[in-house]
Amino acid sequence: MVGITHLRARAGVVKPPFAGGVRQFAYVVNDLDATLTAWVELGVGPWFVLDSFRVAGADYRGERHEPLITMAFANTGDMQIEVISQHDDTPSVWKEFLDSGREGFHHVAYWSRDYPSEMARAAELGWQVVQLGPQPFAYLECGKSLHAIVEVMALSDRLEGYTDAIRRAAADWDGTSDPVRSYPPAPSA
């Protein structure tokens, strides 16, 4: 209870790191199919899968590496869930996580229309860049007891269209039909 009291005393003092709030919870797993099946059984879907691609232009801990991954996206309400599985031994933030013996929850993501300002804020906070990507996106170590990574992704009009389509697909989904689909989702009319 002491920790909760401490948080109550600091309410209104602690500034959230970025505007807009957390938009995504992400999981890194060895078996993507089993993980998506488990989420579907919980009523989360449909899943949009971007299958087996290289993260071209990725920079992991200061060196160029292009891991081969599959990503899947679904929503539950307004929260997006992402599941990532890496298929090779290329150094990456995902391989580092799995090699540490962990699997499951990996990061929270913020989507930003002002990526440079958010990255400047991360630097002010002393957060360390683990991996950069071309979209652009950054995975950051925040050094907090959550032991998770924080992702900041630049939110383009195109990406926002995809995220909106995934959210709408989840809202309209009957829970059984076509639970796994190809990414990107078709734009809504």
Written overview of the protein:
With 189 residues, this protein is α+β, with helices and mostly antiparallel strands. It has a single domain (17-173), classed as 2,3-Dihydroxybiphenyl 1,2-Dioxygenase, domain 1 (Roll). Helix content is 28%, strand content 33%. It is built from five helices and eleven strands. An eleven-stranded mixed β-sheet has the order 4-3-8-9-10-7-1-6-5-2-11. A hairpin with a 7-residue loop joins strand 9 and strand 10 (149-154). The chain is globular and about 45 Å long. The mean pLDDT is 91.
What tags apply to this protein structure?
33% strand, 11-stranded mixed beta sheet, globular, alpha+beta, 189 residues, single chain, 11 strands, 2,3-Dihydroxybiphenyl 1,2-Dioxygenase, domain 1
